[in-house]
Amino acid sequence: MSDHSLQLRGIIPPMVTPLRNRDELDRDGLERLVNHVIAGGVNGLFILGSTGEAPSLSYRLRKELIDAVCRLADNRVPVLVGITDTAFVESVAVARHAANAGAAAVVLSTPYYFPAGQTELLGYVRNLVPEMPLPLVLYNMPSLTKVWFEIDTLKQLAELDGIIGLKDSSGDLDYFAQAVTLKEIRPDWSVLIGPEAKLPEAMQLGGDGAVAGGANVVPRLFVDCYEAAAMGDAAMLAEVHARIVDFQQVYDIGKYASRYIKATKCCLSLLSICDDFMAEPFHSFRTPERQRVYDMLVQHFPDVLKTHGVHEMSTAHGSGGLT
């Protein structure tokens, strides 16, 4: 049986999935990415989430990714695996594979496509938890799944020992504050914020950290922000949070909803960490957007470019296209 006493706190990046084509991992890039974020001081890795393009990946590739990341992490930090799916049995299958590979927990959002009612959602999770070989983190992502884990539903699900917390990506801090109060029922629960720029407010409300997409690129910045908030260092918190706000400019580049992942992968490609290939139907940034991402890094993060030996932008994509 799994260890349901796992407590999650700090910064856990929702990792991008480095790809070379529609069904092939960029394995060298994946190794560089895992080592990059762990060297940045993160407290865990979350794969197969929204930033990881999970719904666009084959089950074969998802399992290959789980195996590779668990091997690369080598127990340095816990690995969390997304199992959200429209099919109950596929969620269970991925969870079992994750357990066999050495993952620490699984993460579940509400099934997408047909919106589930709260009664249906309660029954679904209650049926799923006994099938789980690992502790389960709930993932509130209403902008993409059309369904919330409503607070009353969470309160009822808190009765299940196999559930160990919540990642909330709604951006609604009133909801987040209510979710944190559930720790009165379950002191062992972890409540993590999704929208990364709201980390200081989330910590002030009693949250335990963030699943921050920007930590793929600048992990130390987010770790410093978490630590400053945890220590109550107001001056340091203001300084590092201002840099996080600057980083948010990268998400304004591009016009489609996929721009968040495109921008993150573009940054990683510019830093020669991994390929920026996107799973279809999405595509990586073209040269004009790529230039804007590079310009943002030059303006706000020249130290990061220097650390990675980047002196100018190449129009070539992938992990080997820079001079």
| Strand residues, percent | 5-15%
Instruction: Write the CATH fold name.
Output: TIM Barrel
CATH class group: Alpha Beta
Structural class: alpha/beta
Helix tally equals 13
In this structure, how is the largest beta sheet organized? 8 strands, parallel
Helix content: 40-55%
Spatial order of the strands forming the largest sheet: 1-10-9-8-7-6-5-4
Q: What is the global morphology?
A: globular
Descriptive terms for the model:
323 residues; TIM Barrel; two-stranded antiparallel ribbon; 43% helix; single chain; alpha/beta; 8-stranded parallel beta sheet
How would you sum up this structure, described in words?
- This protein has 323 residues and is an alpha/beta fold.
- The protein has one domain (10-237): Aldolase class I (TIM Barrel, Alpha-Beta Barrel), CATH 3.20.20.
- It contains 13 helices and ten strands.
- It has helices at 27-39, 59-73, 88-101, 118-128, 142-145, 151-157, 173-181, 199-204, 219-231, 234-247, 259-270, 287-300, 302-307; strands spanning 10-11, 19-21, 24-25, 45-47, 79-82, 105-109, 136-140, 163-168, 190-193, 209-210.
- The strands form two sheets. Strands 1-10-9-8-7-6-5-4 form an eight-stranded parallel β-sheet. A two-stranded antiparallel ribbon has the order 2-3.
- β8 (163-168), α7 (173-181) and β9 form a beta-alpha-beta unit.
- α1 crosses α2 (59-73), α2 runs parallel beside α3 (88-101) and α9 packs antiparallel against α10.
- The radius of gyration is 19 Å and the shape is globular.
